[in-house]
Fold this protein.
Amino acid sequence: MEMLNLLPPEFLRIVISAIIVVAFVFLNCMVLGYAERKLAGFFQMRPGPMEVGPWGLLQLMIDGVKLIAKQLIIPKDSGKMLFRVAPLLAFMPVAMSFIVIPFSEKIQVRDMDIGLVFMLGIMALHVVSTLLAGWVSNNKYALFGAIRAVAQNIAYEIPMLLSLLAVVFISNTLSMQGIVKAQGPIWNILVQPLAFIIYFVAAIAETNRAPFDLPEAESELTAGFHTEYSGMGFSLFVLGEYTNMFFVCSIATVVFLGGWSGPPLPFYAYSGIIWFFLKVYGLLFVMIWVRWTYPRTRFDQLLNFCWMYLIPFSLVNLLITVVGVKLLK
Amino acid sequence: MSQIARTKKEHTFYLNLGPQHPSTHGVLRVLLEMDGEHCLENEPVLGYGHRMQEKIGESRTWAAFLPNTARMDYLSALIFNHGYVGLIERMAGIEVPRRAEFIRVITDELNRIQSHLLWLGAFLLDLGAFTPIMYTFDDREQILDILEDVTGSRLTYSYHRVGGVCRDIDARFVDATRAFIKRLRSRFKIYDDLVTGNIIFIKRVKDIAYFTPDLAKRYGLTGPCLRGAGIPYDIRRAEPYSVYPELDFEIPVGTKGDCLDAYLVRVREMEQSLRIIEQALDMLPEGPFRNKVGRRLKLPQGDASFSVETGHGELAYYMISDGTDVPYRLKIRVPSFSNLSVLPELCRGMLIADLAMTMGTLDLVIPEIDR
């Protein structure tokens, strides 16, 4: 304990936060993985995982052990070093993004003035890992997946940013806490319904989820950009994907659904964090629901949809918002 | 080589779709010449599952070949049985009891619905929708259970025998079938809401891959894809066999011949099949279900052919006999082989996603193509 006191308190804070974040990333992935499989089962009129533990609760743990124990096969003609780096790149940025997420009024690693921009910047990094993984695999299907991922992510980042920008104009701040506090009892989803819809569609495309899961469209590209990955390499991509889903949904919660605010619950001290997680997992449920209901779009339709509908509508929405803000203030 | 041709070559590359690929539904390999996401040329490469079924048919007695017919197209196994026993009956001039003909028609149509249901699920899986296949499998299980009760097997049947059927159907079978008809009619509404009303699905299949009558004529395309192009060619009406002339049913046809029409034709065909089963159950006569035919019966010298409509198109058997119980020549014309041959011309310049979808529309059964 003497040693710990010598360290600066800020350093300790960072270390503890980092441990919590990594633990949470894995926990979230297990919860989501279980929820996805169980819900998919219910949508398809079957029980889902049932064998390992009560109601299959331990299934994801067993899967994790299996994936860790598996050999990481590296193709002969691939870029050996980059092939190993790519899954780490998929995983690291999403872990960093937890720095600015306001779980409640108090629980937040750091409230930056440019929190929203920071999150979007981190999110844009995710595509680099996809491109890298597809490219160095030296597999045509993987390359297809990677190129699709790049085109899709670049296209869908625009409507996403434009829809978030409309909210920024209203709340007049980029800080995540600031956006939550600026909303008050009337959440932004009521003020900006169109922006929310555009954001959510773009978010599904950003995270490469069905019906926009073209980078890994298995009926065309076998497994897309992670065709050649096995074992832990593959599971890091899955971890990255699930954390990314959590991440886009928490942005939606903060920006549109009032973040941690909500009527006080019996556990008064924890009411903020409970509301936050309820909202985030509610949105994640919708994402899973959509995935198991709709067929996949075609690639050109996906891009047309973005350029012909989402971007013009988000631009118009932004313009109306700006005029409205100017007139009302 | 001109400059343009050379540049074109530099931009293209080859891609092997298969033999292990999720959307080929078996060991089929399609060699694609790609320019980005567009397939400029494609060439199906066959033979990974070739078992020389025709030669096997020529080297054993006609009775011993019957189980093999079910192993060619495992989805229309009963209809493949029907075609073969029909051929032997035509060659040897064997009379079939009326009850047996009705039983054959009922089981054939159940088999056809089962094939279409599996197609519906697998086709939507090709389009990236995971859930419908579970629903269609659930319905398909009911058919397999019904058929298992009476035939003893679930996939590769040898139920139709020369001179009749292997076993008689009982009241339980009739009740189960009637209950299933009711159930499936209510399920069509679910499929309609989930699939036909889905804008993403319509956008994916509408106006893609036109099966034109001209194309169909040149390649011998048959089955729902041909009827989707507006040609009401169905062996059950064109060359009626069994008791089909006595039954009242329609041949659904499409208008444009795109993949959406092929989909709609199959869905409506299932409804028609339900109608056929209902009528056949009502008209089911009493009597013997099988005329005894010796297993070593010598087939008279000469040749004959017999065509039936499977779930995928026209199946024709042609046999030449030299007067022994072993056929001299057995030719099997399978629908999927001709249907697949359309692919290079139909899918020229198509996106790879559409190619996978069109292959799904053709409803290929690879062991049937390779046989």
Residues 78-328 of chain A form one domain. Chain A has one domain: 78-328. The radius of gyration of chain A is 21 Å. Chain A touches chain B through 27 residues (CB under 8 Å).
